[in-house]
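We were asked to recover a plausible sequence for a given structure. The inputs and outputs are reproduced exactly as logged, with field labels preserved.

PROBLEM: sequence recovery
POSITIONS: 227
GIVEN STRUCTURE:
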């Protein structure tokens, strides 16, 4: 019998319902050039794997390194939401759908701000070309903004149909701890299909015209309309 070898990496400590939880990124290879990844959470009072709760396989990539890169791009709001979702799912399997497209937009905007700060503020100086950590944070925020922009362009009913197809019939209920793990699977699916520039290409363009990017972000999030 073949046993899948999983690798666990500590990611963060999170607070939920008055208790501290440990968050782990778990990765495993499912075949040549095919890796899956998910988050596992263990309460401070837990002592065994049976106490863990986990998300679905959110990440499906060609290498473990790609999963690590995607996971590093998630801010604490998303990790906390995934924890709440995993706890809720372990307690009940209820489903449904409510204000789906709007909730996705709010979620992405919140996480983008968490990752890179509010870089839409007028007069805020852009990072220097040597500040790679700051540039990578802005790049991750930019990619989330592109997913958010795409979702804005889709008719709400068509978006719900698309979500159903991506999740193969699973439902997301944003009224009840929202099963955010499935939401992240949708976001990852959309991002994989968008023609986004590489970090190097984006960084050159951003450093050449930072005000254009600031205005774009301000219009999308602060004014609540499409640029």
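RECOVERED SEQUENCE:
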């Amino acid at each position: 019998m073949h046993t899948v070898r999983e690798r666990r990496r500590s990611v963060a400590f999170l607070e939920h319902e008055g208790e501290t939880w440990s968050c782990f990124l778990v990765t495993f290879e499912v075949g040549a050039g095919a890796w899956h990844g998910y988050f596992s959470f263990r309460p401070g009072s837990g002592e065994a794997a049976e106490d863990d709760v986990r998300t679905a396989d959110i990440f499906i990539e060609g290498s473990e390194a790609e999963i690590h890169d995607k996971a590093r791009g998630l801010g604490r709001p998303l990790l906390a939401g995934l924890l709440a979702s995993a706890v809720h799912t372990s307690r009940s399997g209820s489903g449904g759908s409510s204000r789906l497209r709007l909730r996705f937009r709010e979620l992405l905007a919140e996480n983008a701000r968490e990752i890179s700060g509010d870089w839409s503020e007028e007069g805020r100086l852009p990072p220097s070309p040597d500040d790679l950590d700051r540039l990578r944070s802005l790049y991750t925020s930019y990619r989330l903004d592109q997913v958010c922009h795409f979702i804005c362009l889709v008719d709400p009913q068509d978006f719900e149909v698309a979500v159903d197809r991506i999740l193969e019939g699973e439902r997301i209920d944003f009224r009840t701890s929202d099963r955010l793990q499935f939401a992240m699977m949708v976001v990852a699916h959309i991002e994989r299909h968008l023609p986004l520039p590489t970090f190097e290409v984006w960084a050159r363009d951003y450093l050449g015209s930072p005000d254009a990017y600031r205005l774009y972000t301000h219009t999308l999030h602060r004014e609540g309309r499409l640029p």
